[in-house]
Amino acid sequence: MRLALPALLIGAVATAALQIARYAAEPAPAKVDAVIVLGAAVWQNQPSPVFEERIKHGIQLIRNQAADYLILTGGIGIADAHAESAVAHQYALAAGVPAQRMLTEAVSTVTAENLAQACALMKQHGLDNALIVSDPLHMKRAMTLARDIGITAYAAPTPTSRYRSWHTKAESLAYETFFYLSHLVIRLTPAAPRCAG
Question: Does domain 26-186 have CATH number 3.40.50.620?
Fold first, then answer.
């Protein structure tokens, strides 16, 4: 019995990590209402390399007519002067995305809040479905959160990633596994994330 619980925990962690690493997106419709770019760190008034990859992918999807609106998420992080979404908005504007095709929220600080606030924007603007843009290893958790919050969502992982070395990939996978399993527990409680709208 003493070994049973640790073995079960190890098995659960290993299974979750494998699901995250091997996550395959379901086919998305040819066009959806919105592209949601999940927030990430900014460096002063510039997106971090990880965030830049997400923004660039969101911009490309808009250029390819995959959606009508680009939803940019993320508030002001610790020691930052600018909201992540504001930095992303300026980046996309400079890349030629019309301001009227962008929606932003600037209060969220974690993935669940990104998606809850994006859900509220979708409701306000009558948008029914969305592509979720983030890093490949983030997609399993992001998609689970989106669906739990109530967004009809399809995965659109970045084709490139700043997590390239075995070390950075391992760190990212460990991080995602912990927070994915944490969400599976939280979703059963009153603290589960809800659409902010």
Answer: yes
